[in-house]
Amino acid sequence: MLTPSALHQLQAIVGETRVKTDADSLKTWGVDWTKHFTPAASAIVFPATTEEVQAIVRLANVEKFALVPSGGRTGLSAGAVAASGEVVISFDRMNKVLEFHAADRLVRVQAGVVTEQLQQYADEQDLYYPVDFASAGSSQIGGNIGTNAGGIKVIRYGMTRNWVLGLTVVTGKGDILRLNKGMIKNATGYDLRHLFIGAEGTLGFVTEAEIKLERKPRNLKVMVLGTPDFASVMNILSTFQAQLDLTAFEFFSELAVQCVTASGDVARPFPEATPFYALLEFEALSEAMEEQAMALFEHCVEQGWVVNGVMSQNETQLQNLWRLREDISETIAKYTPYKNDISVLISRVPAFIADIDAIVTENYPDFDVVWFGHIGDGNLHLNILKPADLSKDEFFAKCQVVNKQVFETVQKYDGSISAEHGVGMTKKPYLGYSRSPEEIAYLKAIKQVFDPNNVVNPGKIFDLDA
């Protein structure tokens, strides 16, 4: 816990008004989007520079208090939850674009820059930052790096890791490291940058990043196709991917469409309801490519894989079709969904989803289940909706009963228990289903090198042995 002396020293580092201990602040900054754990932070600190973060980490090592990083607080695995009296470091003030190198298509930003802010900056340079997801308007780059965020464009552009060319970090020991310095080619030993990407702040805190940008996609088209079964979704993927370079391929269930359209803000793509829907996006760089997409659509209809479909004709329609997918998380939030974020090789998806669906149907016959995900990269989101007559604790307890079966199935298919949300605390008990004991031992050893006193985000991903 934080002593009065340590609190005074924190105030000396960042300024008295930049340390908050009131109940509202502790609740606001001590949580992410998960609802599994009760926030219990000791204080919230708002540094403005890498050097201030360094001073805070060094103080934590001396005074023996723990630190939790806080970005946009949109995480889904409790990786940014302060539940045990930790001091939260908020990166809200570290929100500046610092430098742009046009020839390198490289931008240097602070960790608190919001994803959408970076996307807009790239657009102003007539460039493109392709990592995109529903929380882009509030998630921060530091958090994206900490979880190696993916999103809706992974099939074409890859994960956050693909776009990070350099990092400035403060390790758990309080050292400042500048890793790779934005270079494309740098063959000088271990690339420590990649240890921090996906580490969820357990090795230290990212304070700045050099991010690679890309040319803007041109004349994007979106198609939403209704399918009679999940196997058809996979047939559509293979058919279109063989002929077109897709920038996205998503799927979602009919219940997801019902949840999104219930508000009245988004219309159905077409009158018929179908069990599943595929959303695909591509660049129509010529009229011939658009005609090719229509020919592939007609082929899928002839094969019985598609019942009906629509293709965007303008930017407004494109955005509205995307909302069918992007608004799912927001519209189901009121049902306190129990989420699983799992992935396998694309070739194993049909058998995998059949096994998972059987487990869910057997154990939750009366629960509504919303399926959606980035099927083009093998990532499935399973969302079980809480019935109104169950308390949150009762509901989560029921869902956790079958976690063992779900994750045993993930293990059977050599998959991941967390494709893009991180491990945090919610997935920590199940890490062994995706990582071997030997791997986990190496992870713990790496943690102890960078953070020997276990002060940065302790208790996330794994617990260190006593």
TrEMBL record:
Gene3D superfamilies assigned to the protein according to its UniProt record, in alphabetical order: 3.30.465.10, 3.30.70.2190, 3.30.70.2740, Uridine Diphospho-n-acetylenolpyruvylglucosamine Reductase, domain 2, Vanillyl-alcohol Oxidase, Chain A, domain 4
GO BP terms in the entry: respiratory electron transport chain
PANTHER family xrefs: D-2-HYDROXYGLUTARATE DEHYDROGENASE, MITOCHONDRIAL (PTHR43716)
Protein name: D-2-hydroxyglutarate dehydrogenase
Species the sequence originates in: Fluviicoccus keumensis
GO MF term set: (R)-2-hydroxyglutarate dehydrogenase activity; FAD binding; metal ion binding
InterPro entries: FAD-bd_oxidored_4_C, FAD-bd_PCMH, FAD-bd_PCMH-like_sf, FAD-bd_PCMH_sub1, FAD-bd_PCMH_sub2, FAD-linked_Oxase-like_C, FAD-oxidored/transferase_4, Oxid_FAD_bind_N
Keywords: FAD, Flavoprotein, Metal-binding, Oxidoreductase, Zinc
Swiss-Prot/TrEMBL cofactor(s): FAD
Catalytically driven reaction(s): (R)-2-hydroxyglutarate + A = 2-oxoglutarate + AH2
Similarity remark: Belongs to the FAD-binding oxidoreductase/transferase type 4 family.
Boundaries of every FAD-binding PCMH-type domain copy: 37-216
Assembly: Homodimer.
UniProt superkingdom: Bacteria
Enzyme Commission number(s): 1.1.99.39
Signal peptide stretch: none
